[in-house]
Amino acid sequence: MAATLISKPTLSSSFLGQKLSSRENSKRSEPSRLVPRVTKCATDTAYGGGNVPKFSRLNVWDPYKRLGIRRDASEEEVWSSRNFLLNQYANHERSAESIEAAFEKILMASFIKRKKTKINLKTRLKKQVEESPPWVQNLLSFVELPPPVIILRRLFLFGFMACWSVMNSADAGPAFQVAISFGACVYFLNDKTKSLGRAVLIGFGGLVAGWFCGSLLVPMIPPFLLQPTWSLELLTSLFIYVSLFLSCTFLK
Fold first, then answer.
1. What does pLDDT average to in each consecutive run of 10 residues of the chain (252 residues)?
2. Residue 233 contacts by C-beta under 8 Å, 6 or more apart in sequence?
3. What pLDDT does residue 13 have?
4. Cα atoms in the 13 Å half-sphere on the side-chain side of 48
5. Residue 145: what pLDDT?
6. What is the pLDDT of residue 137?
7. N or C: which terminal CB in the chain sees fewer CB atoms within 10 Å?
8. Are the CB atoms for 55 and 92 separated by under 8 Å?
9. Looking at residue 199, what is its pLDDT?
10. What is the 3-state secondary structure (H, E, C) of the chain?
11. By the 8 A CB rule, do 73 and 64 touch?
12. Whole-Å CA distances, 32 to 22, 24, 29, 35, 217
């Protein structure tokens, strides 16, 4: 058998060539199949996968219309609409981003509007002061508005003195507390004006003004509103504390 194959090499080679050529023709005859690829955007997919509802006003430009609220809606209504829509479309990324973007635009517009209102209010007050009579302008030139921290600290100090006087009303008069309050008032004024004489003058004026107002107004208070241990001297000292607080806090 081997001798027969060796003796006829042409037959085997021609047979193999026909077989290979038939395979190539069959491959060429098959049509090429191209499978198109569909590109999906990551933001169109849901967080948890699957079909989820899509926000119908996703591309609405007006943030108020996008949230479905009026332009004069309150802050609570804006928050309520935002929370309701986020709960509905939380699983759709683009919808949630669109709702949050509209909410942030409304908050920013509200902040800018409030800031402009404050600026306009300050401008109006300044204009009214400038248009007021000269004696009013001279009077207002002695008044200033300190930072809120300073106001609260001094209010706490004189409030403490008033409570101390009321608690010790049965034992002794408030002369000691009034003296401490007067000294504190002079100290604060001297620290502000850098003039001890001016500080003493303003502090003494506040003391006299408080005593005068207390002596004038205390007798007008109905007796049933007062405690039996509250004397005229104690009630007058309360007016003095208020006057000293105003003098050392708001006067220049």
1. 41 42 46 43 49 80 89 88 89 88 89 72 64 66 84 94 84 84 94 90 93 89 80 89 93 84
2. 173, 174
3. 42
4. 6
5. 83
6. 64
7. N
8. yes
9. 92
10. CHHHHHHCHHHHHHHHHHHHHHHHHHHHHCCCCCCCCCCCCHHHCECCCCCCCCCCCCCCCCHHHHHCCCCCCCHHHHHHHHHHHHHHCCCEHHHHHHHHHHHHHHHHHHHHHHHHHHHHHHHHHHHHHHHCCHHHHHHHCCECCCCHHHHHHHHHHHHHHHHHHHHCCCCCCCHHHHHHHHHHHHHHHHHHHCCHHHHHHHHHHHHHHHHHHHHHHHHHCCHHHCCCCCCHHHHHHHHHHHHHHHHHHHEC
11. yes
12. 18, 14, 9, 10, 107
